[in-house]
Amino acid sequence: MPKGRKELIQKISAIRQSSVITYIGGDRQNISTRIAPDIIPVFYKHLKNLSSPKKLDLFLFTKGGDVHTAIRLVQLVYEFTNYFSVLIPFKAYSAGTLIALGASEIIMTRMGELSPVDPHVTSMFNPQDPRNPAARLPVNVEDVYSFFKVTKDLGIRNEAALVEVFSRLLEHVHPLALGNLYRSYSLIRSIAKRLLLTHIDSSQSERVNHVVDNLTKKLFSHSYMISRKEALESIKLPIVYASDELEDALLELYELYEKDLMLEMPFDPELGADSTGRFSVASGIIESIDRTDRYVFDGVIEKSLDPGLPCGVTIISQGWKTEGGGES
Q1: Is a pLDDT exceeding 60 seen at residue 136?
Q2: 316 within domain boundaries
């Protein structure tokens, strides 16, 4: 671990009187890392090294990923500690927001952002992408919900008319795609409630339902960015504003990760390859004071014999690797 990062993690730990694990799911253009089940064994090793901390802080940056992994990660953390907090220097979207729902407190900087957790679902039954017939367009629960809402707002309430509207929808969206969407929507609401109930008493069902409704259907866009003020005052999440000292440390640490993973620079395999055409690039980091794991893509560029054609890229391997060691 570079000295600067280690010092900042130690500083944050001292300010917070906690143990700190960082998780950076890089969102670099052309090569990104999403929350996925393969992080669970890696987190387990970091948590074991920390020897059951009284307080655990997760420094989190992610655009999202697998919702099942979000609840599994929170469950794993609570096997090692009774007090879990999430530190959000910048983005913690979608499944990242779900992870935050499982925390006793969510510490956000002025740059911090959460997002709705309404699902985008893509399956073999989704509509074809007209620009790429081999691809499928994702169906968003908010789009379907808004479709029926605008129907009612236009005064269409007659049962026969609503059946006709639904039939028109089915001409463009397969019924199994709608069924899959509803199932995913119900699942994500269930997961969000379960995560909130890890630290909110079950007697506060009205508050829990308020949070879940806001994050799954009331914000109308999966891309909506939720500030800490809105998260605290409107959505009623357990938000804590980072002190100036803590905010400076969190953002400085994020900037070091941003520089390390070159998040602001699109990935070009040709520029990163050696003389043999091979390249190795990290796109995510899980780190604690004595251990660093990186998600690494190893690949090779296959140059075309025709100079007018682009080079081919083959990924040989990808996965979490311990810095200074082998596979995680």
Answers
A1: no
A2: no
